[in-house]
Specification:
The chain is of the alpha+beta class. The chain contains five helices and four strands.
Length: 192
């Protein structure tokens, strides 16, 4: 765009365009100052929140091992409560359990002996025992024991679904021994 000014030079006014004059007005300086103040006012809460987050993360790092200990104690407490409930059930049916253990003794085939009887909250009754290896007849004896326990109604009413969990052969000097583990889920607390 071409401008022609025919006035003499002394009478001419040098006028700047509004855009050229804008940086000289106080309003521009106020707007710029307000923008800077707004940016600073936004950064302060962000910085404070970041510092608080760092402090909370540090606390979490300190508390993590303690939480693991509490979780372990709670798990142990749950196991103890399950054992307590099982023992209360045994106590209520105390006479019946002595009868059931007698049945276990009566149906045990010759050459089979027990090394451990335990109550496990997850597996129920766990019976561990051994048999002297005699060319395959030891497996028949363990199978006969499981079948006899399953068929006995007094024993099966408290311990259901008796299964062979594991069998392992070991050699001790000249004798082969077969170690076995039987499991059976405990039924609801028996009524005396």
């Amino acid at each position: 765009m071409l401008k022609i000014n025919l006035l003499p030079e002394g009478a001419r006014k040098t006028t700047l365009s509004p855009l050229e004059q804008l940086h000289r007005t106080p309003l521009v300086w106020l707007v710029a100052a307000a923008m800077v103040f707004f940016a600073v006012s936004l950064s302060i809460p962000v910085t404070l929140a970041h510092r608080r987050l760092q402090a909370l993360n540090a606390k979490i790092q300190v508390l993590t091992p303690k939480k693991a200990e509490v979780d372990q104690i709670q798990k142990l407490l749950q196991q103890l409560r399950a054992q307590e409930a099982a023992f209360h059930g045994l106590k209520r049916g105390q006479g019946l359990w002595s009868k059931r253990l007698n049945i276990l003794s009566d149906v045990t085939p010759d050459g089979v002996w027990f090394t451990e009887l335990t109550l496990d909250p997850a597996k129920g009754l766990v019976i561990q025992g051994s048999v002297i290896g005699e060319g395959g007849s030891e497996m028949v004896r363990v199978g006969r024991l499981v079948q006899s326990l399953q068929e006995n109604s007094d024993f099966a009413s408290a311990v259901g679904d008796i299964q062979i969990e594991s069998i392992k052969r070991i050699q001790e000097e000249d004798t082969e021994i077969v170690q076995f583990t039987l499991t059976g889920a405990l039924a609801a607390a028996p009524t005396p």
